């Protein structure tokens, strides 16, 4: 559908066919290369300091409304997350600094159900008003219960503001919430529930942060290795059963249901899923990260892939030279189009 590049070996005449990438951010085949380039570029922003992984989720009762208003309510998730982290980190009671963090939106659970949540990679320290570095060592500097209450208040406040400004739409299972009293009852239910953010243990060094980022930044709803089998009408894939200690199980769905679940997680057009805040924002990081690095006395991690072309990157990452023939190792060139050129039988090289 996207065309191919056909090359021929100058020595043995063997033809190689390279299919063009679709480059879609939801494609399970096309995300590995962008992921490696993005993670490598982030190496230059990493500090030898504590990092934490915090997950922000919302009650499942809000899922129908969020699905009907993806762009505005996904954006509200980012607003509530960033306001919570920045406000609490700046409070002298906890840390009293300007911190940096990266937020990544995921909308799926293991079974490809709709489960919007934010993964935040949080720098565990920051600069105070006098540009002095402060951190809390390997202990996370914010109490989880305080995060929960603050995040709930900020998200619900923006949700109510959107409702009052008539910016919400209600389709499908969200249709009943057009009624004022039904919507009010939903808000009361969400206020009474405890919103449970999750904080993982600190990373073991800057290199582990770099490796960990790749697991979340360019992930999609399902990867190829989880698809175990297909028939003309069904798809079988593996998923974690969190009700059974996270053991893997196989789920079989009709083809239509599998596609429906997958398409639920295609983000709105031009929606930015990876966002940087505080010390790691584009506006601040050039000066602030350099200052933090000087204070901490840590080395700068240099990008390995910067200014390299695609063949060189593939050669470095995968030890595969796409400029050489896979049969004899000779140099390959674009296939000539002259009529007198005798075309050997091609072999496929994906």
TrEMBL record:
GO terms for biological process: DNA transposition. Residues 2-58 form the Transposase zinc-binding domain. It comes from the Bacteria. The lineage of its organism: Bacteria, Bacillati, Bacillota, Clostridia, Lachnospirales. Residues 100-285 form the Transposase IS801/IS1294 domain. InterPro entries: transpos_IS91, Transposase_32, Zn_Tnp. Pfam families: Y2_Tnp, Zn_Tnp_IS91. This is IS91 family transposase.
């Amino acid at each position: 559908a996207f065309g191919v590049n056909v090359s021929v070996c100058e020595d043995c005449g063997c033809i190689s066919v390279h299919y063009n990438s679709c480059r879609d951010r939801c494609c399970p085949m096309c995300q590995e290369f962008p992921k490696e380039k993005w993670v490598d570029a982030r190496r230059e922003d990493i500090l030898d300091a504590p990092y934490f992984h915090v997950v922000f989720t919302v009650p499942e009762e809000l899922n129908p409304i969020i699905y009907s208003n993806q762009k505005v309510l996904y954006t509200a998730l980012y607003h509530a997350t960033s306001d919570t982290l920045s406000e609490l980190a700046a409070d002298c009671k906890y840390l009293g600094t300007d911190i940096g963090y990266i937020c990544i939106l995921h909308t799926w659970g293991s079974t490809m159900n709709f489960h919007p949540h934010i993964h935040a990679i949080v720098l565990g320290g920051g600069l105070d008003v006098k540009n002095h570095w402060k951190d809390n060592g390997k202990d996370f500097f914010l109490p989880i219960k305080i995060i929960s209450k603050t995040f709930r208040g900020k998200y619900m406040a923006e949700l109510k503001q959107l409702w009052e400004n008539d910016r919400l739409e209600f389709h499908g299972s969200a249709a009943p919430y057009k009624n004022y009293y039904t919507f009010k009852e939903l808000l009361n239910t969400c206020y009474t529930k405890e919103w449970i953010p999750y904080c993982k243990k600190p990373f073991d060094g800057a290199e582990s942060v770099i490796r960990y980022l790749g697991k979340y930044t360019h992930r999609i709803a399902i990867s190829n290795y989880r698809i175990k089998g297909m028939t003309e009408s069904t798809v079988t894939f593996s998923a974690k059963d969190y009700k059974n200690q996270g053991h893997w199980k196989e789920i079989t769905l009709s083809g239509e249901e599998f596609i429906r679940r997958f398409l639920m997680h295609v983000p709105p057009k031009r929606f930015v899923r990876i966002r940087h805040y505080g010390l790691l924002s584009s506006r601040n990081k050039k000066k602030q990260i350099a200052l933090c690095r000087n204070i901490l006395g840590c080395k700068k991690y240099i990008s390995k892939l910067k200014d390299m072309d695609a063949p060189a990157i593939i050669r470095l990452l995968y030890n595969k030279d796409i400029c050489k023939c896979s049969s004899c190792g000779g140099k390959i060139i674009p296939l000539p189009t002259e009529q007198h050129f005798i075309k050997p039988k091609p072999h496929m090289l994906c």
